[in-house]
Amino acid sequence: MKIVQCVPNFSEGQDLEKVETIVNVLKNRENVKLVSYEPDKDYNRTVVTLLGEPNAVKEAVIDLVAETTKYIDLNQHEGEHSRMGATDVIPFIPIRDMEMEECVKLAKETGKKINELYEIPIFLYEEAASSEARQNLAKIRKGQFEGMKDKIKKEEWHPDYGRPEIHKTAGATAVGARVPLVAYNINLDTDDVRIASKIAKAIRHSGGGFRYIKAGPAEIKEKGIVQVTMNITNYKKTSIYRVFETVKMEAKRYGVNVLGSEIIGLVPMEALVESMEYYLSLEGFDMNKVLETNLFN
């Protein structure tokens, strides 16, 4: 059976009862596995991970959008993470016997159906983008829900599906296709968000840093710290350990220490093995020496 991964992010992470109500639509479905869902209070956002047969995953995501549209009003939403939609982003990732072109087709079908059912404007991004200018999600989402009200009216920012006006409470949604990425956050022992912002600028591609890093700052007020929050969009070309060590080095410039880090959602084993190989100074080690790799060989 073909397997696709989908990682929808929706804009609620504080009201856990509401999160459970929304996510409940994804449980006990045929040919779809709800692998995880991770609400974050400070980001006020939940990251969901689904695996399954392509059409079954598509239908599950469409039902998820119905729930987020019903229960989330972005006019009342605040959080550290950028957002433009109640269901903010829906990426499809090829996992088994899937080509990227199939994920692009799946993204377009899903986006079109969401717009038809709920009148939410849809922007296609990454591999599914309708133009080079729309490949980068950050460019699409710039201005967030509040700014999108006027932005979407400009001809160059008309949605790929739907009228050039946002849904009054659910905003707009980005649907795309991409390779697996690593959502990775590094914690700093300071509450000065300006330091996190400077470090994020130093490591991200747009600031002259790593080619496959998108990064920004975030305040974790409950813990009194800040984060350098990022997506590693190609872990094979930009390793986790390399980013971690660079942030440690940059932090020292400001008299700040790294407290630790966290991975959001799922991560490919290969990405972790590479970092383990580095920190343990392993010689001649590769994925073939991982037990799970050999279980069904």
Automatic annotation (TrEMBL):
Q: What is its main location?
A: cytoplasm
The GO terms this record gives for MF are:
folic acid binding; glutamate formimidoyltransferase activity
Q: Which residues form the Formiminotransferase C-terminal subdomain domain?
A: 180-294
Give the UniProt record's GO annotations in the biological process aspect: L-histidine catabolic process to glutamate and formamide; L-histidine catabolic process to glutamate and formate
Reply yes or no: does the keyword Cytoplasm apply.
Answer: yes
Alphabetic keyword roster: Cytoplasm, Folate-binding, Histidine metabolism, Transferase
The GO cellular component terms are: cytoplasm
InterPro entries reported in the protein's UniProt record: Formiminotransferase_C (IPR013802), Formiminotransferase_C_sf (IPR037070), Formiminotransferase_cat (IPR004227), Formiminotransferase_N (IPR012886), Formiminotransferase_N_sf (IPR037064), FormiminoTrfase_cat_dom_sf (IPR022384), FTCD (IPR051623)
Q: Which intervals hold domain Formiminotransferase N-terminal subdomain?
A: 2-179
Give its localization: Cytoplasm
Identify the pathway. Amino-acid degradation; L-histidine degradation into L-glutamate; L-glutamate from N-formimidoyl-L-glutamate (transferase route): step 1/1
Note the Pfam families from the entry: FTCD (PF02971), FTCD_N (PF07837)
EC numbers for this chain: 2.1.2.5
Q: List the SUPFAM superfamilies hit by this protein, alphabetically.
A: Formiminotransferase domain of formiminotransferase-cyclodeaminase
For this protein, the record's NCBIfam families field holds:
FtcD (TIGR02024)
Concerning PANTHER family, the annotation shows: FORMIMINOTRANSFERASE-CYCLODEAMINASE (PTHR12234:SF8)
What's the protein called, per UniProt?
Answer: glutamate formimidoyltransferase
